[in-house]
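Researcher: If only I could read backbone structure tokens as easily as an amino acid sequence. Walk me, if you will, through where the backbone shape changes along the chain. I have put the entry right below:
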Amino acid sequence: MTNNGNAVETAYRLWLTDDSIDEATKAELRALEGREKEIEDRFYRELEFGTGGLRGVIGAGTNRMNRYTVGRATQGLAAYIRSVAGDAGSVAIAYDSRFMSPEFALEAALVLAGNGVKAYVFESLRPTPELSFAVRRLGATGGIVVTASHNPPEYNGYKVYGSDGGQLVPDAAERVMAEIARVASFRDVVRMEREAAEAAGLLVWLGADIDEAYVAAVVGASPNPGLGAAAAAEGVGVSVVYTPLHGSGNMPVRAVLAAAGFDDVTVVPEQEKPDSQFSTVKSPNPEERDAFALAIALGEKTGAELLLGTDPDCDRVGAVVKDPSGAYVVLNGNQTGAILAEYLLESLTARGAMPANPVVVKTIVTSELGAVVARHYGADVLNTLTGFKYIGEKMTEFERTGERSFVFGYEESYGYLAGTYARDKDAVVASLLIAEAALYYKRQGLTLYDVLQRLYERHGHYLEGLQSRTLKGKDGLEKMRGLMDAWRGSSPSTVAGLAVAQRLDYMEDVHGLPLENVLKYVLEDGSWFCLRPSGTEPKIKMYFAVQGANANDARAKLDALTADVMGRVDAAI
């Protein structure tokens, strides 16, 4: 057996003999005897606490999400919170509809309480952005959301937030990781029983008060206050079909739409209630057309003008609109982002409400169409690394310095935010803005599909694509490392018949951004592609973007670029 194999076996045996680990967990592990590959995958590493926290398959083992890995991470987080705030430290906690989410949330709360840190826990599932809002409203030192976002049902995760309501950025995350590393044994995890924590005021339950304040804050982020009510008085409305995809969005999305005057909203009944198995979809991911199958069927039956779908923790939203033939078209994240930028900035300009020094913030893998739209209205544009935490970090910087006014932030992976009440992407406010945009342009005789075509005519036909390759386990990680090393060591000089004009390696200093394992190539015609191992899934992602004279030209360019790059990627893995 290799040295690594010996380490795996040792870790496996330690769990079987550790008297702090419960018998049910040990029974799960004993059932794996003889399944060396499965044991290796569970124990070849500690589940990594990255800059966004933990995410992994639920189960027993060091490389799995379970009460022990959650407890150890929380013990480290508690030490960090106390180093920042002493006895006054507090953490707000929310969770979604995934398997074990309530249990992991309570375990985290009891470990915090055991370390003298007050835990504010939502009484039932809530959206991730409401947690961000709650951290700010409560003046908490930090926050936790138990979710694996849009990952498959076997996953869960644990995202950590700072006092500004944003996910931890690298410097703070590294401090938490250092504290976690000091927790050598599960015996070092200190927890308090629930009744004792409640009695001591270290476990406080959150409910309607925060919900009502959050809904008001979201509605207040509209660039057109009263638009829905005014349109309803005119007899104009937009019919909406909404699916929460069995997640946490059902109540808040409906509450916000109703508060803003949208009363023709039908929820997909089969996907309305929480379901940890997400049994009606292959994946609860609004980035995938298949997730909208039931919504489209209901839309065709009811004649709905707009379909919306949010992921389990309700921080991402997808939109489906009608083309001139009446067929439903699923917008990608870049298209929705550009439409929302147009709606927000056009509305603020028309009302004379554009703030001083307006800025739109997007990520380096997001289309340039939204940036062109922003500049058209006189707004500045900043790029950040992938991950909304970097957009939230910029918002907090603007709040501190007063030098810029945040108007809109978004990323191609269906994450959007307007307003400054939170520091994370919010599918609740994005659902409101998409519905408002549909109504705003309907009053002008336009559909959202028409608006997108108008943007292409005005600014050029931008088209984007995304490919990914799933590479699971230890072997998959090694393949991803090898692929990135190979591209760094031998970058192409031409791709799809075009010269590479610029190679950006984000492991080096690029525009002062934090270091990250990302490579971006800009071609001589302005097209670009990007290679990026995912930080939350066992995948490597390839992003593509082109600009063409028309739809056919853009499609031809994108197909050629994608075929060349993916041919090289697949040959290497």
User: Anything to note?
Assistant: The longest strand covers residues 461-470. The chain has a mean pLDDT of 95. The CA atoms of residues 6 and 103 lie 33 Å apart. The two ends are 26 Å apart (CA to CA).
